[in-house]
Amino acid sequence: MNVTETKLKGCFILEPQIYSDSRGYFMETFNLEKFTEKIGYKPNFVQDNLSVSTYGVIRGLHQQLPPFAQSKLVYVLEGKVLDVAVDVRRGSHTFGQFISIELSSENNKQLFIPKGFLHGFSVLSERVIFAYKCEGFYHKESEFGINPLDKTLNIDWKIKKGKEVISEKDKQAISFNELNPVSL
Ligand SMILES: Cc1cn([C@H]2C[C@H](O)[C@@H](COP(=O)(O)OP(=O)(O)O[C@H]3O[C@H](C)C(=O)[C@H](O)[C@H]3O)O2)c(=O)[nH]c1=O
User: Fold this and answer.
1) Active-site residues (predicted)?
2) Could you confirm whether 93 is annotated as catalytic?
3) How far is the CA of 134 from the centre of ligand 1 (A)?
4) 106-129 b/e (C-beta count within 10 Å ≥ 16 → b)
């Protein structure tokens, strides 16, 4: 498994080993021992999620506030997304910076997003099955988010103009400038 730390400390791109043969291919989507050895952090993933979306959907930018903050290991089972993680950790020298990366069932890349980040993705293929492991259970009351089309962040979600599909909750979310940094 190849692991690369992004410009945002603690946020890593993982490329699991793919074992191809005449039948197709095999990969370990998560191995605690290898993850801990390569990343230097032992996650306590307690919840697995899966969402299915069609082209143009933008889910996010969400997080859960402490003590329910979640880290996530995200990847795509089918299709392609642009995945975005925004550093909103209080005191981080990359506060407000984000990374965006294409995750797909072609490149089999994964992204580990630590606690204190906003997370979201846009769907670039006709359909996507998006899977992720969460450290920390879902806790609705501590859910928090900003509008994914926020002008300050100005994220290019790579969706044709006017084709964005965003939930009412996300459309009505606050702007980045109204955000309080997250004290972990
Ligand atoms: C996140 C979550 C949601 N739900 C229920 C609550 C709603 O009735 C329904 C849809 O929830 P929501 O619209 O918040 O789903 P997404 O917009 O995909 O939210 C996710 O979007 C971005 C990409 C994330 O990283 C988060 O994991 C998560 O916030 O599922 C649950 O029952 N458990 C959960 O863990």
Assistant:
1) 62 (proton acceptor), 132 (proton donor)
2) no
3) 12
4) eebbbbbbbbbbbbbbbbbbeebe
What is the 176 CA–ligand 1 centroid distance (Å)? 20
User: Nearest-CA neighbor of 14 among 45, 37, 48, 47?
Assistant: 37
Task: Spell 147-184 as b/e; 16+ CB within 10 A means b.
Answer: bbbbeebebebebeeeeeebeeebeebeebeebeebee
Shortest-distance atom of ligand 1 to CA 130: 23
Cα end-to-end span (Å), the chain: 29
Annotation says 62 is catalytic = yes
CB atoms within 10 A of CB 100: 18
Q: What are the C-alpha distances in Å from 74 to residues 61, 129, 134, 179?
A: 14, 11, 9, 24
**Token couple for 33:** 């021992």
Which pLDDT tens digit goes with each residue over 90-101?
Answer: 999 999 999 999
Summarize pLDDT for 9-26 with one digit per residue, the tens. Answer: 999 999 999 999 999 999
